[in-house]
Amino acid sequence: MHEGCALSNGTDRGEDFRLTSERLDPFVEYRMRIHDALGRLAESKSTELIEQHAPRELAEACDFTRAMLSAVRGTRWVPLQLYSRAELDPEAGAFLNYVESDPEIPLANMLAETDMVRRRTAVLIDDSLVHTRSFKPIIEIARSPGYVAAPILVEGRTIGFMHADRVGQSKLVDDDDRRCIQAFTGELAVLYQRIRWSERLAERSRRIRDELERASDALTQIGSAAERLTLSPNRPSPPSRRPGSTSRRETILTPREWEVLGHVTDGSTNRAIAERLAVSEDTVKTHMRNVLRKLRVTTRSAAVARYLAISGGMQ
């Protein structure tokens, strides 16, 4: 009986110690809130939506006043999206206008952002560093007493940053805030990469579908053209010239040559043509040599094409 009570008391004391530790370490609570925030972001269907909502989710999860997402483009970084709690930052309009003007900030030496690209880790810029490690124009507009920031690493390189501060609050940013933003951007990068891969696969699938559709359309057109060009085995004799007009056909070939060429167009061999016209095969060959010379072509197929073109124009 006493042993059971002792075990129970020990368990209770262990639970009390855990709860006390969580209260003493705010990062534990923030970590849970970060997990929930990223769960909501995971419902986004595009990287564009993630970029729009990530600053607000970070600020609300970690009690920051402001949070900003930026992109790294070569040797510069560009603020993209800013979220600010109006009740704590009543003059946020100037900073928002600055972000919306698409400024490009150089990754110069000594800047915290340059260190983040090189070292790939979060930074804490307190009031003792904010004027020496930060881009002066943005600090003058933001009027931040200090901030934390972390790189967004995708496929082994820094594609952007997240910044956050506590302007308007009695509490300044500290190392717990640095740990929080590091945790947030680390998981955000994984989420962003997964959705970007999905977008790329969807885009490739769309391009493949478009190519297949174009190929199908081309094959359909080729099939239609081939069907129109298919010659009937019982091809009628070449059309006669209209009364009262001078036949262009007769000025090019003789009637017998046109007759031979008509049979060639039907696909007949020289022997078949000779049997049909009751002449020798050599005579048919002679007619075809004359046809090729007069039409200024070198092959039977080219002669057939000229025959079809001339015959079509006479109809």
UniProtKB/TrEMBL annotation:
PANTHER family: DNA-BINDING TRANSCRIPTIONAL ACTIVATOR DEVR_DOSR. One of its GO terms (biological process) is regulation of DNA-templated transcription. Residues 246-311 form the HTH luxR-type domain. The keyword Transmembrane helix does not apply. Keywords: DNA-binding, Transcription, Transcription regulation. One of its GO terms (molecular function) is DNA binding. Pfam families: GerE. It comes from Nocardia nova. This is HTH luxR-type domain-containing protein. Residues 225-252 are annotated as: Disordered.
